[in-house]
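HUMAN: Please help interpret these tokens:
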Amino acid sequence: MKSFFTIHFFSGLAFLFLIGFKPVAGQNLPDVPNPPRLVNDFAGVLQQHQITRLEQKLLDYEDSTGSQVAIVLINSLEGYDVADYAVRLALKWKIGTEKDNGILLLGAMEDRKFRIEVGYGREPVITDGIAKRIISENIKPNFMTRQYYKGLDAATNSLFQAARGEFKGENKYSK
């Protein structure tokens, strides 16, 4: 069985070829940190104690569930599509690849673009619609007021709820 990232990567590439896009060969994806970390703030917007708290929270979640959640904050996508960048980064870093249940929360700070990329093993409970709602309800309002930690903390809580099938959120589209 092919992994979620592989299937969506190739279907996404086909779509991008149809609409035209910048070549990704020169795309500058960050290397996997050594030692590996689940919270990577390449944009420098979090304080060290906030990184430490989020890191511990994500490690505890991985220990208790076997699912890996990673947060990566970068300055810019350098003109690349956020979905393509997220898939490529998740593949390069092998986030959750053992059970294909990884989740990448990517933020491009200067571009104000966010993406939650979900592995195939988690896709039935964390759909694209839920991921978009988590971004619009937790990340965007907090990031607009520069409360980056608060937004990431709330987003990870919502992701954990969604993984348990408990996320309700504020469905702004329901009557």
About this structure: Residues 48-65 form the longest helix (18 residues). The chain has five helices and four strands. The two ends are 40 Å apart (CA to CA). The CA atoms of residues 43 and 74 lie 5 Å apart.
